[in-house]
Write a structure and sequence with these properties.
By secondary structure, the chain is mainly beta. The chain folds into two domains: 59 residues, no CATH class; 243 residues, no CATH class. Helices cover 9% and strands 37% of the residues. The chain has four helices and 22 strands. The strands form seven sheets. It has a six-stranded mixed beta sheet. Strands 3-4-9-8 form a four-stranded antiparallel beta sheet. The protein has a four-stranded mixed beta sheet with strand order 19-5-6-22, with no helix packed on it. The longest helix has 12 residues. The two termini are 60 Å apart. About 10% of the residues have low confidence.
């Protein structure tokens, strides 16, 4: 702290400005402040040496670079044409229970666009890697999930939720759009098929009384689902600004993400397979929206999808 006894009337370096007994004006104080500031280090952003000269002497300090700001889970960052997505936790409810997952790699992305990093401490998926975007194209960063595949429950691409980067309006975007009237709703039944005859014993007789009819449940887990569907949650929209020559990001979801169960139980469905031509629902052999599910699981002309090898897009971390 620099003391100037002239302010109290004793005279000093600033004696010519502050005389004993004089009234101090605001302009004089501003003049004093300017002189002192000449000898004070002036901060600035960025790393490097900071030198200040003035009445207070010469000061030389090293200014360290600013630390990286906190990155939120599933935050989307675009630098130039390279897009990165931060790691994130997901709570996903399925038909049976709730699971906790961590996203760690891209599950789907524009064809040939992914570069995998090597930084195990990076806050971004793919070990700090990125997806290279094409100027002039807009993109969606989404969370995809599809619980019921053509091979049964859990036998499909992105049964566990995964991060996908999709060209807006492209083949991958179209085929991953939920197809049940614009929602991700799926319907499930407990199936009770086939009626059997059982005998009731008359307490007064040892002879059975035939003809009592009771339902015989023959359903399996795979028979609960009446239709296919996928789920898609928008994480961010990335839009090309041709005037500025850059991509702009609109973030919709950050932090841990909860994905609800989209399967709605509709009770028990009964039908009698013991008579003529029974009214067996068609979805018992071919689920509703079969063609849409086939397209979802098939190739996307503008995107690559995870098909094994390398980092799993999503890993389960808890029950």
């Amino acid at each position: 702290m620099i003391r100037d006894s002239g302010v109290s009337g004793n005279g000093s370096l600033y004696g010519s400005r502050f005389k004993a007994g004089d009234v101090i004006s605001a302009s004089q104080l501003n003049d004093l402040n300017s002189g002192l500031m000449q000898g004070t280090v002036q901060p600035y952003l960025g790393a490097g040496v900071v030198t200040a000269y003035g009445a207070g002497g010469t000061q030389v300090l090293y200014n360290p670079d600013l630390p990286i700001g906190e990155v939120q889970q599933h935050q989307v960052v675009v630098a130039g044409n390279n897009l990165q997505v931060a790691y994130g936790r997901i709570l996903a409810q399925d038909f049976y229970e709730t699971h906790e997952y961590t996203t760690q790699a891209f599950g789907a992305y524009p064809t040939g666009s992914v570069t995998t990093g090597s930084d195990y401490f990076s806050p971004f998926i793919n070990l700090g890697g990125y997806v290279t975007l094409t100027p002039g194209t807009n993109y969606w960063v989404v969370l995809l999930r599809n619980q019921v595949g053509l091979g049964g429950y859990g036998a499909t691409f992105c049964f566990a939720p995964c991060v996908a980067v999709l060209p807006d309006g492209g083949d991958g975007y179209t085929k991953s759009t939920p197809w049940n009237e614009g929602t991700d709703r799926q319907v499930a039944y407990s199936v009770n098929s086939g009626l059997i005859s059982v005998d009731i014993i008359d307490p007064s007789s040892i002879d059975p009384i035939p003809g009592a009819i009771f339902g015989n449940a023959v359903s399996t887990a795979d028979d609960y689902f009446a239709q296919y569907n996928c789920q898609r949650l928008p994480i961010a929209k990335v839009v090309w600004d041709g005037t500025a020559g850059q991509f702009n990001v609109t973030q919709y979801l950050v932090g841990p993400i909860a994905v609800s169960n989209n399967i709605q139980i509709q009770g028990t469905l009964f039908y009698d397979n013991t008579v003529g031509t029974p009214p067996i629902p068609s979805w018992l052999t071919t689920r509703d929206f079969n063609s849409q599910q086939t397209s979802f699981e098939g190739a996307w002309s503008d995107c690559d999808k995870f098909s094994g090898g390398g980092l799993l897009p999503t890993v389960e971390v808890g029950p």
